Amino acid sequence: MVQTLIGPFTQILTLADIPLKGAIADDQLHIIKQGGVLTNGERIVEVGNFEDLRKTYPKAEVEAITNDLVLLPGFVDCHTHLCFAGTRANDYALRIAGKSYLEIAKAGGGIWDSVTQTRQASETKLAELIVQRANQHLKEGVTTIEIKSGYGLNVEQELKQLRAIKKAGETSSADLLATCLGAHIVPHDFGGTAEVYLEYLLSYVLPKIQAEKLAARVDIFIEVSAFNPTEGANYLRAARQLGFDLVVHADQFTTGGSAIAVELGALSADHLEASTEIEIKLLAASDTVAVALPGASLGLGIGFSPARKLLDAGACLAIASDWNPGSAPMGDLLMQAAILSAYEKLSSAETFAGLSYRAAKALNLNDRGTIEPGKIADMQAYPCADYREILYHQGKLKPVKVWKRGRA
Ligand code: NIG
Ligand code: FE
Fold it and tell me: Given this structure, which CATH class describes domain 3-74+370-403?
């Protein structure tokens, strides 16, 4: 197996050996100066001083770095809805004109509008759109992307979305991980209660998803406008019984979701804009990752999730883009995280941890998110000599080089 030594990097932030949960100061970061990374193709073999590695591995091919670059692990975006067709620019125009969520839904907007537009797109067209968006993400250093269904909302259309995600994953170099969000809202054309709709998902949709191995994760939107906590808990319990990992859209406008997520041992509780001290304590005491979605706060013009309080209480905080046509159309994960960091006073260490190994934890992946031996060689290099430049530029400084499974 050919070994490649990449470097020297002015700084390597390995993100290794720092805690999974709680606050992190920048001086806890493990920074290697004039660093090198030895890979065997897909995996990292060793990380250390470049000259030392060159002496120890004289036969390794050298991929020379000739200017100041700071190396970080590839980002993991653990919450997106980027399998969609169409636009909701009309919703946005109404929102900035002062209309409420309910008024917009009544005027034909909201999630149902994206369901209508996405249902009209073919599986092939959807796969193309996903690849375009995933490639944009990859260029910006995001090497692993979770993608939800949830704009299909019946058996054929949910399967179409998940098949499109699978197809896109075969083309895109980024790793794509699918989640079934059939429980996004009760579809307007269903003609039954929320309870009956969830029953339909459990009986007719989830078993087909399993048979085709399209997704191993189930998400639900627990919210006044979607499903109540009791419906959510019953659905999640049954999905877990079928063998699915659980995630929850929780506490976006009203509380209730995160307590269910913690009680049922969900991998993550995402949104949390409305979480209070009670929910913060529950999350901090649990193994459920708290996922902040600053892109949704920016898209809706509402406050951010209490990221600082969550970290200080001891929670594992990840940051994801929520890339979707309705509440978070921007899709620039680093810019959103940098803005969250400025408002919530997150250190570089906390922000980068939230974008890397802590986000990987939300996906139950322990093979990525840090730069250390044995991990997948997903890495990205920024054109600067000091890692603090990255958040300082608030997302405008982009990686000049990205490696996915060792390939530049
Ligand atoms: O995460 N909150 C629910 N779902 C998405 C929004 C989807 C949409 O508006 O189309 C979210 O923000
Ligand atoms: Fe979402």
Answer: mainly beta
Buried b (16+ CB within 10 A) or exposed e, 220-250: bbbbeebbbbebbbbbbebbeeeebbbbbbb
pLDDT bin (cut points 50, 70, 90) of residue 100 is confident
Q: 297: how many CB neighbours lie within 10 A of its CB? A: 23
Whether residue 168 has its Cβ less than 6 Å from ligand 1: no
Q: Break the chain into its structural domains and give their ranges.
A: 3-74+370-403, 76-362
Q: Which ligand neighbours the alpha carbon of 179 most closely?
A: 2
d(CA 105, CA 251): 20
Percentage of residues of the chain with pLDDT beyond 90: 98
CB 174 within 8 A of CB 138: yes
φ, ψ for residue 308, nearest 5 deg: -60, -50
> How many Cβ atoms sit within 10 Å of the Cβ of residue 401?
16
402 has which bridge partners?
380
Going by pLDDT thresholds of 50, 70 and 90, the confidence category of residue 118 is very high
List Cβ neighbours of 190 (8 Å cut-off, separation of 6 or more).
153, 154, 196, 197, 200
Of ligand 1's listed atoms, the one at least distance from the Cα of 226 is 3
Is the CB of residue 402 below 6 angstroms from any atom belonging to ligand 1? no
Q: What is the pLDDT of residues 201-243, one digit of tens each?
A: 999 999 999 999 999 999 999 999 999 999 999 999 999 999 9
- Beta-carbon contacts of 15 under 8 Å, excluding residues fewer than 6 positions away, are 29, 30, 72, 73, 352, 353, 356, 357, 369, 370, 371
Dihedral over Cα of 209, 211, 217, 223: its sign: positive
Kindly report the backbone phi and psi dihedral angles of residue 119, in degrees, each rounded to the nearest multiple of 5, phi listed first.
Answer: -60, -30
Give the SS3 label for residue 75: strand
**Fold (CATH) for 76-362:** TIM Barrel (3.20.20)
pLDDT of 3-36, one tens digit each?
A: 999 999 999 999 999 999 999 999 999 999 999 9
Cα separation, 89 vs 186, whole angstroms: 23
In this model, does residue 321 exceed pLDDT 90?
yes
Q: Is 324 in the pocket of ligand 1 (CB under 6 A)?
A: yes
Mutate to test the pocket of ligand 1, among 79, 81, 91 (most ligand atoms within 8 A of CB): 81
Between the CA of 221 and the centroid of ligand 1 the distance, in Å, is 8
